[in-house]
Amino acid sequence: MVAVGEGAGDREAEILEAKRMEAKLKAALRMCLTPEAYERMANVRMANPELYAAAARQILAHAGKGGGKLGDAKVLALLRAMRGGERETKITFK
What is the spatial distance between Cα 51 and Cα 79, in angstroms, rounded to a whole number? Predict the structure, then answer.
């Protein structure tokens, strides 16, 4: 039989673990990116969490190979390449 409070404790533990992992990811990205590139990634995280997660994995893989810090232009190129098939929205007025 499960006590009423146990479910809440598990959920809190999961939330704390997720926050801990996010903090580790942010720290790793800060070391791999220039300040401008890190700010761009923070904006991407707010707008598109899936793209952020995929891009963060790519950036960390690049850093693991000893690639040095990535600048804003490189991060932007990576993000555009990852979005690949999506068309950019264009508005034309007649």
Answer: 8
Amino acid found at 87:
R
Of 4-13, 28-37, 66-75, 78-87, which range is least confident? Answer: 4-13
Reading the block at residue 37, the tokens are: 């590139």
Rounded to two decimals, what is the model's pTM? 0.72
For the domain spanning 4-83, the CATH number is: 1.10.8.140
The string of DSSP codes covering 61-91 is: HHHHTT---B-HHHHHHHHHHHHTTPPPP--
Sign of CA pseudo-dihedral 25, 11, 46, 77: positive
How many C-beta neighbours within 10 Å does residue 52 have?
Answer: 19
Instruction: Find how far residue 77's CA is from the centre of its chain.
Output: 15
